[in-house]
Amino acid sequence: MTIQLSVSCRIAEGFLSKEEASMSFESLADLAVAAGYDAICMRASQIGVQSAPDAVRDARRVLDERGLNVSMISGDFNIVYNNDRGPDCLKNITPYLDLAESLRAPMIRVCIKQPDDIIQAQAAADQAAQRGLVLVHQCHVQSLFETLDEIEARLQAIDRPNFGLIFEAANLEQCGQEYGVAAIERLAPWIKNVYLQNQRMTPDGSITLETWCNGPVTIDLCEIHDSGGLNFPSIFEGLKKIGYNGPVTVHQSAPEDENLTALEAATQTAKFLRGMLERA
């Protein structure tokens, strides 16, 4: 499998704090290169639609100097928080299209919370198509993309070739959904990006997350290369079966383990994932 390995700016964020970056973008880019990644998945904690033009140009320079691509942008904080203002991006998609073009990113993450958002998603996708850009929505709790049935129905309703899915197994597991080979084959027509993060579902987990379909669930975070979490071999088997060749993005927040640096976590994760790709 020839796949672009991408690391999210989330590695420089806390799990529940998505606005304050723990390192500069230049340091993050250096980390990506040192750990063996091909691209960065951009988030507003580093560069978003709120960023000054000079900051965007500086980020592009940093990327070019290091030979890094941008796999996708999440252009504002409301999108990544998945809050009620998340779908606002669909009402005025132009700044997000401009940012994606400036960073040479092929994809833009958006947010859909209510059925009425679907019409705006169609219009935004039509605008994006004029620039050759793709809009994507993540499998995410408290959105219209919680369950496999919902995800398939919403994507069929949007019915735009440039509107696709960020396949994200952890959120599917939180919603009580299957996330292995069968799920990937079912959603194959729409999968444009793959987010990977790891967790252990446990009744006394340290983090409680609310879902619409499955009520509150509790999890413990763990590194992607740790055992006892998601079934990653099943995920990569599914990706191989559908001939997936898009980005695989490490969507892991900053390490919880104080003895593990962000660089160490990113390096170990990249090694683990490249091993998975080679075996697949």
UniProtKB/TrEMBL annotation:
SUPFAM superfamilies: Xylose isomerase-like. The lineage of its organism: Bacteria, Pseudomonadati, Planctomycetota, Planctomycetia, Planctomycetales. Gene3D superfamilies: Divalent-metal-dependent TIM barrel enzymes. It comes from Fuerstiella marisgermanici. Residues 30-273 form the Xylose isomerase-like TIM barrel domain. This is Hydroxypyruvate isomerase. Keywords: Isomerase, Pyruvate. It comes from the Bacteria. One of its GO terms (molecular function) is isomerase activity. Pfam families: AP_endonuc_2.
